[in-house]
Amino acid sequence: MQQNPEPWAASLAGRWPEQWPQIYTAKKYALIDPMVRYLAHAQRPFRWREAMAAFRKDAYHRRMEQMMVDAFGHGLEDGYIFPIHGRNGILASLSLAGKPIELSPVEIALLEAVARKAFWRLLDLKGEAQALETVLPADTPLTRREMEILHYLAEGMTSMEISKMLKISNHTVDWYMNGLQDKLKAKNRQQAVALAFRHGLIS
Question: Per the database record, which ranges form the HTH luxR-type domain (predicted)?
């Protein structure tokens, strides 16, 4: 179970095949790891193959494939990642890997609940849980126009597409978007959408 996207750097608990962490670090796989990159915007648990498929046109896809071959050689043939979100974004993840198995939706939901519970319990034992529970940023109300833009953004529309839809300039869309990011305490548009989903502002 990791507390940030860099594996091994801040693991709260874990058990990996012998030598795999050293190989992963030596080959700098953290820079291209499709699971780490996919995790940055994941809203739900996902399987390794989903992450690989998402980056099939990526410039580093061949290195990703090499990483998967190396992982396979160490018994990590397949896996699932369970993101753990807090009030201000992703906090950690639980990674389960080994021989390929098919988890049912119910099993995935149960493991997701276990991941959250285990993460907060481990933080509690370390005395760090309270520091991560900050004031809910969504307490600040959004205007009707901000909500419109947020909905279009969640549908994957660009600033230009949104500006045409609302008949306003790109600059005005960006101005609203900056305001949204400030209110939600988001680092970028993707995180703003993720936080909006998490806080039930959009569904």
Answer: 135-200
